[in-house]
Amino acid sequence: MRETYTIGLDYGTLSGRGVLVRCRDGAVLADAVKEYTHGVMDRTLPDGKTALPPGWCLEYPADYLEVLDFVVPALLRDSGVAGKDIVGIGIDFTSCTMLPVDADNVPLCQKAGYGGRRNAYAKLWKHHGAQVQADRINELLLRTGQAASPRFGGKISPELMAPKALETLEEDPELYRKADEILEAGDWVTRELTGSRERSCSMAGYKAWWNERDGYPDREFYGALHPGFADFARDKMPGKICPIGRRIGGLSESWADRLGLEPGTAVAPAVIDSHAGFPGSGICGEDQMMLVLGTSSVMAALSRRPYSEMGVCGGVKDALVPGYYALESGLAAVGDLFGWFTENMIPARYEEQARREGIGIHALLSAKAAELEPGGSGLVALDWWNGNKTPFVNGDLSGVLLGLTLRTRPEEIYRALIEATAFGTKRIMELYEKAGVSVREIVASGGISMKNPLLMQIYADVLGKPLKVAASSQAAALGSAIYAALAAGGEEGGYDSYEDAVRHMSRVREEVYMPRVEYAEKYKKLYALYCKFGKILGESHKELLLGLKTI
User: Fold this and answer.
1) Distances in Å between the alpha carbon of 303 and those of 307, 351, 434, 436?
2) How many CB atoms lie within 10 A of CB 368?
3) What does the alpha-carbon distance between residue 109 and residue 105 come to, in Å, rounded to a whole number?
4) Taking the C-alpha atoms of 106, 125, 120 and 251 in order, what is their torsion angle to the nearest 10 degrees?
5) For residue range 519-530, what is the model confidence (pLDDT) as tens digits?
6) What is the C-alpha R_g of the chain?
């Protein structure tokens, strides 16, 4: 039989990575990465002079095409696979990363006269400049009794499509009017590759409030936010919605020639980057939960019915696994939180010890923290260094560390920060279980899951569930390659069912982290304190933290 292959492209916060995968068994034959030339712009525009306000995070969309031009030829070259044997391309992307374009799909920031206008650029997923607009939307939801709807999940964050687009309208109405459409960056890339004007069900559902029953919210809803916003869905987000597992289009002749592939090669609809880890982690069952551990974290689990509450999104079908709703949430800072601590709070003697022992600072802190007992340091933290997504859905909340004394050591703080992210994860898992999802095991992916055994063991202890680790170090890119195999279909050498594709192309490692019974009671008490402090500072007395920001 002819061997067939797919390419999975994983667009992250700082770079784009690709893998070339054999359809028969999921073997990754090559991988390549390209950092974005402009990186994340959070202080100035590309001119280096035009300052950005706090909370702004922008990107330059031409960087995304540079990834294609570099990564795909590199994959073909390094694997030795012929372009004619690639049967599908899948893309995952950070979301919501929002981009205004003209009628020819040209980003406005790349057009003459727009380079100095900050709303013309791609607003990255973690752009929090639209918090004011998110607050107004939340007020509207409460006033109209829609907050509890599965569409909105109780409360919305500034990371979604509507607040970012409303921010553009209110800051630069002329630019908003000039935008022929406002796209997810992932949809922009698939449109570049294929010419298809369809949009991804994954991104439309989780980031723009679309569902298969009612479409987008109506004119009355958007018009209540701003008179000029009433036709936002009709004018700025037109196009059919393409479910996951389908083909959004075929590769155009120009891009086929540019990349060394065949015209018409199947292209899958873009999927949210963290969601791509679902098939990439080998998850098929309703009793499994995906946990992606990176700079932030994402949790997802399958459900037979829609559900949304307190930051948990799960109101759209066919956005992650065909035939299912998927509950999704996560933490806004995990790896970023640990990175902040090691970059800013480590004494010189620890750095020197790490150098002497020939290990990294994270390895040293983990070794020291592993010797500690749960609760032994008297510390508990609230993991809100980048705001809170669940259950308070407030990007303006900030991190808290309680219980410090003159005897507190760096490894104690490090362990407390790990525990805080585990507690935040437990709160979300409890909401999933409230929705009727029975979690039997958790499959983790992302760099942290492979590099930090201490964190994985603490998570198992706190969550009380076995934790497995995806075999691939690039679960998201592999997941995109699996979606590409579904887009190609069985006749072209891919697969016709999600279950078959995952069973053949994905797997987990043999090692399993089991919860330790002897620590269950201590973590139960610490978790209760975490929830109590969280309720005080995130809900009943949130003005304490918000007041600090105001000052």
Assistant:
1) 8, 46, 12, 8
2) 18
3) 12
4) 0
5) 999 999 999 999
6) 23
CA distance 453 to 467: 11
Q: How far is CA 30 from the centre of its chain?
A: 24
Identify whether the C-beta of residue 249 lies closer than 8 Å to the C-beta of residue 190.
yes
Give the residue from 513, 515, 494, 516 showing the smallest Cα distance to 505: 494
Query: In the 8-state DSSP scheme, what is residue 330?
Result: -
- DSSP per residue, 20-45: EEETTT--EEEEEEEE-TT--BSSB-
- Report the sign of the C-alpha dihedral through residues 274, 275, 279, 284, in that order: positive
Interstrand relation of 86-93 and 271-272 (parallel, antiparallel or unpaired): parallel
DSSP letter assigned to residue 60: -
Measured distance CA(242)–CA(480) in Å, rounded: 15
Give 316: exposed, middle or buried? Use CB within 10 Å, 0-12, 13-18, 19+: buried
CB–CB of 440/464 below 8 Å? no
- 449: closest CA among 509, 526, 385? 509
**Digit-coded pLDDT (tens) for 332-365:** 999 999 999 999 999 999 999 999 999 999 999 9
- Structure-token match 């155009």, residue found: 252
